Every structure is written in C-alpha cells, then in structure tokens.
Amino acid sequence: MSSVLSGNLAFLEVTSVVKLLLSDGQDGRLILQQENENGEIYIEGGQVVHAVCHAYIGEPAFRELVLWTSGKFAFDPDGRASQKSIEKDVNQLISEGAQQLEVWKRVRSLIPSYKVPFRKTNREPEGGVKLKARDWEVLAALDDGESSVSDLAGKLNMRDMDVAVVVHTLIEAGVVEAGTAARPVHKEVVDEKFFKTVENELIQLIGPVASIIIDDVIESMGEARSTFPREKVPSLVEAIAGEIYDPAKQLAFQQFMLRQIKSL
User: How far apart are the C-alpha atoms of 38 and 34, rounded to whole Å?
Assistant: First the structure.
C-alpha cells in the first residue's frame, strides 16, 4: 500500500480528513483504526461512495466512523470500492456527520462508555421535558433493572450511538441515572505531579502536542487527571506509547515510565 497521508484522529477529525482528500482530488481508500476496531471509507470522483465499519455498510458505517476521535488513519490511493453503498451528496453527508459528532461530544460527557449501566429513577421528567416515542421505548426497556447502552441496543435492535443519544436525553430529564455498578468507589489516585512528569518527558520526545495526547488518552479511558486511578497507570502508559510512531522514542518513553511506575 502506498500511503500518501496518515495521522492521528486525536488531532484531525474523520470529516476533516475526508474534506482534505476531496479538496485535493484524491481517489482511494481511507483506512481507520481504533484499538481493535477497523473501518474504511472509499472516495471516487469527488464523492464518498462506500464505507464499512463492523457490521455496518454505507451511510450507517460512515455515521459510525465520523464519531471516532482517537486512533489512526492512513490513505491508500490504490484502494477501490467493491461496491457503491452511498448515494447521498458528499457535502450533505459530511455536514450531517459533523452535526452528529457535535451531538456525540455532548453525549460522551454523561456516557463515557457503552458498557456503563443505567437505571430508572422513577421520577417525572424535569423542567417540563416532553419525551418522544423512542424515549419511552428505551425507558420501558429499563424496567428489568440496570442495563448498559449496549444491552439496550441489543434488546431494541438499535445502534449503540442512537441508544446513547436517547439515554443522554433521559438523564438530562432526570428519569434515568447511573446504575449501582457505575457509582464511584474510593480508589487510590495519582497526583498532578505524576502527570507533570509524564508530560515533560513526552514533550522532550514528541513536542508540545504531548499534553493533548495525554488528555485524549485519559478521556478515552473515561477518566480525568484529578481522579485518575493508580491501577490504570500501566494501561495509560501503554496507550500513550502507542501514539509515538518512532520506535526508538517509544522504547525510551516506556523505559522512563517503568521507572516512574516503580516509584508510585
């Protein structure tokens, strides 16, 4: 594969990458990777013609991929679509994708993971909020107790993202809250001095984007600097190291962090 463009989704949104390729008149395959997930977007003749993500194909796949805010991307100019699964005009497709991403950013503030359990509060909607039919459908699915977004999506045959948006609405209405398993418990946390040490070392290796990478990784783990659990430090280090593309610098960072972990 001859890649002419590659980078990190923490710094460039999927819609921005697609627009960049279109403005440059590129045809080919945009390959996206996020942890153990993969996706592809195909561009031909100034249009997005095909997308694949999980079991989704076409527009549903594209809508899923534009929500990825971490991971890596690479463009293969030799890639060609095996089928045409998207007919919508590319400007409308990108506009809708950008709007959906903004919605998702708000949703993530209350739902950091599809696996977090939720339950009904048995209260009336607050502030005169009027629930729609789909809202009531999701609320009724919580009658069995606590369920995560993924659980509800399976019960209702809906996309995780669509259920998350509804649950977000229900949380803001006061009729749904985090379940027992999601309530915070006391854990040992690392102090701010630790993150300053990590950040200073990373700046020396890759420059001023270090703080952005650290915050993005922490957010992707559903945590915050001020309350980051000590038990998750090894996973944090591994995730940050994965964002360093130079093997020598990656090894240097890992060795440095191993010494820091031992002193915690």
Answer: 6
How far is 162 from 56, CA to CA, in rounded Å?
14
Please give the C-alpha separations between residue 102 and each of 68, 96, 109, 219, in angstroms, as whole numbers.
12, 10, 12, 16
Q: 72 has which bridge partners?
A: 8, 33
CB atoms within 10 A of CB 218: 18
pTM of the model as a whole:
0.58
**Cα atoms in the Cβ-side hemisphere of radius 13 Å centred on 226:** 0
Q: What is the pLDDT of residues 89-109, one digit of tens each?
A: 999 999 999 888 888 888 888
Render pLDDT for 225-256 as a digit per residue (tens, 0 to 9). 888 888 888 888 888 988 898 888 998 998 89
Instruction: Identify any residues that bridge with 34 across adjacent strands, giving them in sequence order.
Output: 37
Q: And the tokens for 185?
A: 């418990």
Which of 186, 240, 177, 176 shows the shortest CA–CA distance to 209? Answer: 240
